[in-house]
């Protein structure tokens, strides 16, 4: 029964489903924040801090937030790049883009938010000092194309940092995966088997990974060769 529900949830996902889901979340940002906090067992701020710190940004840098959602990373990024820096956010959901733009207007640095498909970033190559993605890549499907596009827009020597999650890796919690994956696929468009770490390792150098909560949550960082 649970396996059948999981398969039904996975089968119904498409671009329309994804946009509808994330537009709904954009209209319920407090519920969204509470959901993420529960998903990360109350450590949302800590994990976002780790992700931004891993970029090793400097004042005046230009940074890209892929799948930026309503902009929860913007304040952290603005604190690092400062008033001379630039933040660019990209998201496929019109509702999320609207929320992120409103958030960016409150910050003391240049913030640009674009609606775009992360697999085909409408951005110049070799533009960004750093690229982050938090709980977003595993909702995009074609990870190899997304990571390749990120590599294109990164400057040589620039860093990528990805915060994301995967299913339980060991028993007995692993037995809960069909239920959790089915619910998450329905309400977030999650692809739990997305080869994020492998794609980063294939594309970048100096790859490192930190894992948390029984290896279900991880931060993978890497540097573009030059």
From TrEMBL:
<dbReference type="InterPro" id="IPR029063">
    <property type="entry name" value="SAM-dependent_MTases_sf"/>
</dbReference>
<feature type="domain" description="Methyltransferase">
    <location>
        <begin position="63"/>
        <end position="158"/>
    </location>
</feature>
<dbReference type="GO" id="GO:0008168">
    <property type="term" value="F:methyltransferase activity"/>
</dbReference>
<dbReference type="Pfam" id="PF13649">
    <property type="entry name" value="Methyltransf_25"/>
</dbReference>
<dbReference type="GO" id="GO:0032259">
    <property type="term" value="P:methylation"/>
</dbReference>
<protein>
    <submittedName>
        <fullName>Methyltransferase domain-containing protein</fullName>
    </submittedName>
</protein>
<dbReference type="InterPro" id="IPR041698">
    <property type="entry name" value="Methyltransf_25"/>
</dbReference>
<keyword id="KW-0808">Transferase</keyword>
<keyword id="KW-0489">Methyltransferase</keyword>
